[in-house]
Structure to design on (435 residues):
């Protein structure tokens, strides 16, 4: 993955702009916002080296929040600062992922801007929740995974890319267990490719743009694969439990980290309390049930309200779904690896919730899949409207981005907890199910 100075400069600018933008009005809501009620106390318990009461999830995300609290204190900016950092890193990661996938700097910038305007990244980066950290690490792991599709890679380069992928996937799993799903999916994909190579199927005639090539990952031995995507992520995962060594009584034997996994699993099974904003996986792509993270009334007569609604940008969410279907069709018809990469991760991020045994679920589970829509739209626009090799993007693509930006501005008051008249929030409620 060789990056030009101009690409690195864009990365720095994107991070700086996004970080500044996310911090504006970060002091609202003034109290714990949605699941911050669980995670912020846990982060402070790490700082106090006291027993941790949040056993449902691994420790890394809460440890990162603890850094923010130690820097800025026990107040809103302290609770949410590290989420803004990793939200900004996610945006930079989407830019680099698009650059490596499409090999076009302008298109990569378009993807990054669309990711910012799709609203999911903005809201999730301003709340002290674990998903922000998990998704950031997943995106950076995907960057290295995408890099392995390039032609002419040496065995050392492949090993390096897969090890970095393993590190980031391990860190993602150490934030939230959902990251195990894409990790296992990548393991299965690698195994399937090696079997195809062994059986010498008709795919031997594949072109360099195909999702499968006879030389794909061939320089990586099974031993290297086992270390990079087996030992490394698992080792990184358990390494994040080391802070428990400083908590009295938390780890007294080598078995305790393993026993913690059982306790976490049991904790997950106990999460059965119904919630007014719970939803099902079939609801998420069409935004039939978004989620209010906060809804706080202010004023002597409660005439004002500050709300945070997690709702995807309707233009991006709905047309992005069509773009995913186009990518799937194009992959089946032409076997392009770019279309396959997008469809593979969208389907893994989304459809896994159809089988994960969760008794309650929420719209924010769609966050990682929702980010893939920017890539799907970029691919669809380029294939449908612009098949040439010029670097300029078609005007319709910039027009689309402009409309998405306008919708982001339109929804901004209820994304950023701005102070609005009490009943005016209904102006943004397009459907009764959004209330």
């Amino acid at each position: 993955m060789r990056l030009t100075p101009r690409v690195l400069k864009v990365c720095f600018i994107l991070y700086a702009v996004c970080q500044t933008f996310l911090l504006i009005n970060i002091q609202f809501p003034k109290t714990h916002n949605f699941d911050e009620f669980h995670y912020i106390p846990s982060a402070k318990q790490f700082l106090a080296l006291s027993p941790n009461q949040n056993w449902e999830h691994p420790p890394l995300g809460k440890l990162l929040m603890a850094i923010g609290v130690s820097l800025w204190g026990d107040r809103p900016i302290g609770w949410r600062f590290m989420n803004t950092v990793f939200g900004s890193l996610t945006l930079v990661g989407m830019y680099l992922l698009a650059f490596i996938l499409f090999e076009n700097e302008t298109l990569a910038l378009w993807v990054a801007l669309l990711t910012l305007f799709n609203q999911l990244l903005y809201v999730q980066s301003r709340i002290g929740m674990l998903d922000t950290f998990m998704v950031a690490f997943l995106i950076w792991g995907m960057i290295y995974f995408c890099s392995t599709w390039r032609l002419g890679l040496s065995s050392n380069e492949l090993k390096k890319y897969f090890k970095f992928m393993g590190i980031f996937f391990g860190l993602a799993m150490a934030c939230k267990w959902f990251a195990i799903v894409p990790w296992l999916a990548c393991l299965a994909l690698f195994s399937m490719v090696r079997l195809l190579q062994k059986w010498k199927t008709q795919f031997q005639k594949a072109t360099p743009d195909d999702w499968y090539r006879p030389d794909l990952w061939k320089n990586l031995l099974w031993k290297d694969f086992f270390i990079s995507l087996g030992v490394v992520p698992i080792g990184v995962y358990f390494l994040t439990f080391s802070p428990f060594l400083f908590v009295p009584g938390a780890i007294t034997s080598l078995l305790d980290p393993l026993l913690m996994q059982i306790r976490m699993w049991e904790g997950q099974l106990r999460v059965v309390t119904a919630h007014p904003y719970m939803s099902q996986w079939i609801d998420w792509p069409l935004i039939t049930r978004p989620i209010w993270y906060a809804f706080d009334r202010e004023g002597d007569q409660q005439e004002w309200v500050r709300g945070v609604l997690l709702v995807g940008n309707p233009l991006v969410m709905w047309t992005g779904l069509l773009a995913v279907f186009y990518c799937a069709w194009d992959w089946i018809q032409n076997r392009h690896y770019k279309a396959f990469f997008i469809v593979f991760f969208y389907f893994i991020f989304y459809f896994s919730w159809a089988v994960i045994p969760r008794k309650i679920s929420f719209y924010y589970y769609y966050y990682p899949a929702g980010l893939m829509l920017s890539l799907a739209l970029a691919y669809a626009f380029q294939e449908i409207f612009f098949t040439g090799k010029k670097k300029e993007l078609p005007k319709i693509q910039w027009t689309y981005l402009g409309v998405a930006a306008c919708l982001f501005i339109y929804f901004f008051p209820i994304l950023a907890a701005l102070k609005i008249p009490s009943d005016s929030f209904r102006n943004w409620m397009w459907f009764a199910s959004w209330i």
